[in-house]
Every structure is written in structure tokens, then in C-alpha cells.
Amino acid sequence: MTQEQWNAVDRYITDLFIPPDPVLDITLQSSAAAGLPPHNVSPNQGKLLLLLAQIQGARTILEIGTLGAYSTIWLARALPTDGRLITLEANPKHAEVAYSNIVNAGLKDIVDLRVGQALDILTQLAAEEVSPFDLIFIDADKPNNPEYLKWALKLSRPGTLIIADNVVRNGTVIDSNSNDPNVQGIRRFNEILASEPRVSATAIQTVGSKGYDGFALIRVIAD
Fold first, then answer.
1. Which domains does the chain have, with CATH numbers?
2. Which residues of 95-127 are buried (b: 16+ CB within 10 A; e: fewer)?
């Protein structure tokens, strides 16, 4: 199997299951034009996020890592009209592009984009005593993933679904001697997750247009 074949299969899946969507196309185009890194989820992964949020019956979502708001839009579309999505972005330039995309998608009344370091904003959310989130999506800087998991658990309830992206990293996650802080952050995240009694979790390897990676799927089962 080659990257070319993975790309072709992703195009086949996208053509079958994801109708053309000018809003999402503009989101990707504006992100690329602004020089944002191409780290957004693929279309079929975005559809998966939407389906998981719908299956969950989510009314409140927390997203850690906005980038250009591509995944934000997928997730927000799963919410009812009185739902709420809070998304956190550290880079002001990325946030500016994301906000424009959120407005263009007609979601500014549902999406609350907060700009700043995620760990600082998560502390603020706890101080605000926001209600526990129904779904939390972690897709930000990987060295801080262990801390994001701790905060996700603080801001969740039994039944909350937590999804974490990029937990395989082209297979390098198995290298305990890696000097890459991203790999070490994910390894520590996985180790904490495996020993956490408040959750039931697994991780899935994926291949496709985003390369070889994977995601963790976590259900909170106890306070």
C-alpha cells in the first residue's frame, strides 16, 4: 500500500459519502491562502466527527485546537440550534481565519472561539463552572496532550465522549527512545489513559490522505 493509493481510496470514500460543500471548500481554501499548516482532518474524518457527535446526542462540545475551523464546522453542524461549541486556539492569526470561516458557515451564534494558550483557557472554563461537556475533541500541540486529558476529565461527566487525534504518528508512538516531544507527549497521554479508572478507551490506527496515524476514543464512565 502506498500514500498514492491511500489518497485514491479517500477520494473514492469522499465522493461516495460526502456531497460537495462550498462552505467547507472555502474553509480549506482560506486556510491554505493564509498559510495555515495543512493539519485539518480529512473530509471523511470530519464526517466521522459529525456522526459521533450526533450518536452522542451532544448539546455541548469542547474543541482544543481550532486551526482554520474545519473540524469545528463539522462538529458544530451536529449540534441543535441551542447547542454550544467552545473552541480554543493559541495562534491569533489562525483564530482570525477560523472566525471568518465560522461566520461564513453561519455558526457564529453556536461557536465560541477563545484565543490564548489552551491550558490558561481551560483553567478559566473551570473557574466559570461551565456545565460538563458532552463531547471533547483534542487536536492541539501534542506535548501538552497529557494535561489536556486531565482537563478534559475535569470538564466531563459520566457518559462524555472524548476523542483525541494523531495518537499513532506514523507508527513512531512505539519508540520509547524517541527524542520527538510530540511522540513523547502522545506516549505519556496513552499511558495515563490506559491507567485511568474513570474511562473506557481504545485507540485506532488509520491510513488515508492524512498519512498513517490514528485516534483515541474515550468514554468517561465515572466521576
1. 3-220 (3.40.50.150)
2. bebbbbbbebbebeebbebbbeebbebbeebee
